Every structure is written in structure tokens, then in C-alpha cells.
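Example 523, ligand zinc ion.
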Amino acid sequence: MRQVAILSVAMTKFGVSEKTNLEMFAEAGLEAIAQSNLEPKDMEALYFGNCLGDFEEGQMHMAPFAHAELGLPISAPATRFESACATATVAIRHAALLVGAGIYDVVLAGGTERACAMGTPLATKTFAMGHHAQYESRPGLTFPGVFAMAAHMYSDKYGIPLKELKLNMAEVAVKNHYHGSMNPKAHFQKEIDVNTVLDGMMVADPLQLFDCCPFSDGAAAVVVAEAGRAKDFSKKPVYIAGMGQASCGPLYLQKDITRVRSREESVAQAYREAGLGPDDIDVVELHDCFTIAEILALESFGFYEFGKAYDAATKRETYLGGKVAVNPSGGLKAKGHPIGATGAAQVTEIVEQLREESGPRQVEGARVGLVDTLGGDFGTICNIILRS
Amino acid sequence: MDYKLTYDQYQQGLEQGKLLGLKCNGCDAVTFPPKSLCRECNGSDLNITEIEGHGTLRTFTVVRVPPMGFTAPYVVAMAEIDEGAWVMGNLVDINPDDADMSLIGKKVRLGNQIVKGDNYSGGDSRVVTFSLAAD
Ligand SMILES: [Zn+2]
């Protein structure tokens, strides 16, 4: 395999947008291409992420229209990826695999989502289409519901009283909102405290509103290229050191959802390819769709033993300046979660961190960063390790 | 290869009050709800079996912000049936506001109820329910 680099990254501001999916993607995509010192005609393929355009705008098959917005050549195929919330990371991984294999030299990858256009009842419904339709959606399961069930199971399995667990989960939200307050692209740029979380409306017991990431609009894109292209480039090169992706079936087959088996396998693949381990990671963008999700991820990575990561934020070990900086962008919780774009925004944050472009939220001396994106109810996990 | 126990057959079973699953002739594991291959060994030598309908509640949530078409609050739970498989369903016969951590580990009896269809589900369907066992 050839070495692969990320030449450039770009994202729109995340939040509620009046722009269409295509308009948002054009903004991110054209900026990424401009930043790479290349032109649209140099792109050999577009790997385009979008989950719910069908419901958001009545738009299926959006990839060729994104291709047209960007002015890509007819010879560059545009392909839609859909892996629920892990969509853009999976698109970037496949771009990197084909560049690594020598099929392409330069690929544009990323995604766009306009979830807010649906409103909460329809958005909740369409997100729930990510559960097994016949056996798990029909009892009225929702995404907060899945992570709520994981939180109850975690409390029971490790003997941590629910009240204590919830207080520690609230600290995860407080941390990510604090980080997000330093990110001008974040959906929420306001600090909160533990009471903001504990006074919030109940969404799915025991998860309250501020345990949950928002529905967001936004787009992000990255230029993936053969590493030689990065050498004659003004910005500090950032390389893909290792990648992983793994799959699990419905929850009834996963059983113990305090252990994310797909993530344990995916991150092991990424560590193996990179020749690195948990101690080598300086900065992480992980999939904190719900506060409990961040806790589960830290354990899957091997940063903490199982049952031990629940108070990591409380002990400030996952803050900027802590043991390992987790979600310096604000994470899905504060930066926002336009599902088809999320993974590309995570890669954007890590690349900027490794280039020391992150301003007030810069992780000092960051050299190795981990991207972690979860799709569906643990059905897909994709990890990318980047290094400068 | 023939699909041994289809969703439609499973639904017809529920309508008759039967919880149909698959017993593996290779490893004896019971797969419930059904899928193409044994959940333990991926074996395809399977016989349709009726499960007893007893289990233990493993986790739950009270959904308070429902998807379009559902009326909250209601309890969604996962239980491990005595035959070893896990299944998702609705905990019924309980006030959702009374659902707390003491439910985990409780014995449940399986049944089923109708969920109204919507534009995406091809009509009404039945889902597994759990009721707290008397003993
Ligand atoms: Zn078997």
C-alpha cells in the first residue's frame, strides 16, 4: 500500500442552516479543494456522504449533483456512502484505501446533512430507521433509547449507582460544551454546568436533554491524496497512519452493549496498521452522540479498563491539558452532529490540531490523533489514526 | 437456500400466540427472533421451534421523546430468554414512571402486542412484550 495523506480539510459552521445540502457541501468542498492548491478538475473521484436527504429534501442520489456543484470532471465518479452516523468516516477510509492501492491519486471525500429541516418527530423517526426495522424499531426504540439502555446496563454491571453515573455523565457534557465554547464552527458555543444537564427534560431515562447531541445541519470535506502530493505543499503534511472498520448486527445479537465489540475490533486494526497503541494518542475526536457513549469509547480504545472511564471527565483527565484531550472541538455534543458530515468534521479537527491551527483549543504538541465514528446502534465503527 | 422462518411466518406465529424461533441441529442454540443462520455457530441446519416465553430483563429505557407515530411515555426493554437468546420488546403492565433500576434482573413473561403501521412498515405488525412474572 502507498502512503496516504490528508492534503486539506474544510467544514461549514454547524448549527441550523437555511442552505440546502448541496449548497453546504459546495461551501466545504470548494474550500477544501482551494486549500489543497489543486483545482476541481484534479479530483479523480468524489466519495460523498449523506444519510437522510430523501427525507430532508426529497433528494435521493445526491452525489452526482454535488459533483456538478463542485465542477468535477465527468471522468471523476461520484458515489454516495451511507453508514448512518459513521458515513463520512467510512467514505474517507474508502478514499484512502483506493489511493493507497494506487487506483487514484487524489479523491475528495466528506458529507453533508440537513437534519434540522425535518423537525424533531420526523428526525427521531428517520434516525430510528437505523435500528433493525422489524425487530427493534417497531417497539418504538430511538437512538437516545439505545444509549439509555447502555447506561442502565453500565450502572448495573459495574455496580455504580445510577445517580453517581449520571453526575459523571453530566461532567462529559460540561467538558464538551467547554471545549465547544472555543470553536467558532460549533453548533453550541456556550459553557454549561452540571445543573444544566441534571435539570434538563428527560429524553429517554436516564438520558436528559444535555446528555444528547443535537440534530444539526452542516457539511465537511477533505482532500485525500497519495503522500508524495503532500511534500510540495506549504502546510505541514498529515498522514494516515492506520485505519479500521468493523460491523455488528442488531442489538439482540450484541447483547451486552456496555462493550462495543465493533469498536474494539476496529481500533485494534487501526493500532496494528499504525504500529501504535493507546498510550501514543495525543488527541481524540470520538463519537459522543450521548454522554455515556464517550465513556464506552474511552474503554474500547484501551485508555481505561472496562467500567473505569465513567469519571474521566470529572477528574479532568479528558480535558484540554489532561491525560489525553478528548473532543477538543466540542464533540458531537457541542460542535453538533449533521450525521452525514460528522466524520469529515472529526478528521478536520484532528488535521488542524496536528498542524497546530486550533487556536485557543490547541492541544500542545499533538503529533498523533485518533478519529472514532459510530454508525447506527454500534453496527458500524470506523477509526482513523492520523500523524504529522 | 430457503429462508427457514420468515418474518411473515414469525408474525403469523405471534398472531396465534406462538413465539417461533429456530433450534440448531449443530449446536442446540435457539435463535430468537429468527434469522437465516444460527446466532451461535452460523449453522443452516435449523428446525422451527416454539420458545417457552420466560426470560430475565437485562436493560430498559422509558422513551419520552418518541418517533413520529408513537405516543410517549413507554418502556422499551431487552430480555434474555431462558433459551439463551436476547430480544427487544416493550415492558407492559407497568406505569412507565415506576420503571427504575430494580427492573434489571427481574423475571419476565413474553407476549406480544400490535403496533400500528405507518408509511414505511407495510401495515400493522406485532412486537414482543414483557410482563413482570408473578413469582
Ligand atoms: Zn448452531
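Summary: The radius of gyration of chain A is 19 Å.
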